[in-house]
Amino acid sequence: MSSPGVPRGVSPLPDEHGHGHEHDPDGGHAHADHARDGHGRVEAAAPTAPSRAVVINVNEHTGALVLASNASRSGIEVEIHPVSQPRARTHVWVLPREGRDGVVYAAIFPTLESGDYAVLDIDGSIAAVVSVPPNQVTHATWM
Questions:
Q1: Phi-psi domain of 26 (left: phi exceeds 0; alpha: psi -120 through 50; beta: other)
Q2: For the chain, which has fewer Cβ within 10 Å, the N-terminal or C-terminal residue?
Q3: In a domain, 127, yes or no
Q4: Is 123 a domain residue?
């Protein structure tokens, strides 16, 4: 169930891989295909359809993060972690997202404990540190 002003379509709850995932309006999740990596872990495959909706879940302890990007990073996972906990990483894909003004590219972390997060670049270095306050959606870029 969505709150007023919050689009339908994405679960803010983590899946079995520890990350939130998007649901299409027909009920399937956007990364249904999985493959094994070289270490026996199961990794989700990038979604193939544009994302139409994301449910953001913020409260007095959590916020959300929207990282605007560009078409060249579409399908690439962006990884973040709390600054104080480098091993507590989470990731989502940069996806094309249909909006009022056309398609934009963004990675959306729909619910994060409030705090400072390191946004990692493709090479694993820290590209930026972003503060995610409670009860808010923080906007930043990952280019």
A1: alpha
A2: N
A3: yes
A4: yes
Q: Name the DSSP class of 62.
A: E
Q: Look up the pTM and report it.
A: 0.69
- Domain assignment of residue 2, yes or no: no
Residue-wise pLDDT for 16-64, tens only, equals: 344 444 433 333 333 334 444 555 556 677 776 777 788 999 999 999 9
Percentage of the chain beyond pLDDT 90 is 58
Domain that residue 92 falls in: 10-141
- The closest alpha carbon to 82, from 121, 123, 126, belongs to 126
* Number of separate domains in the chain: 1
The DSSP bridge pattern shows strands 137-141 and 62-68 to be parallel
Exposed/middle/buried for 112, CB within 10 Å: 0-12, 13-18, 19+?
buried
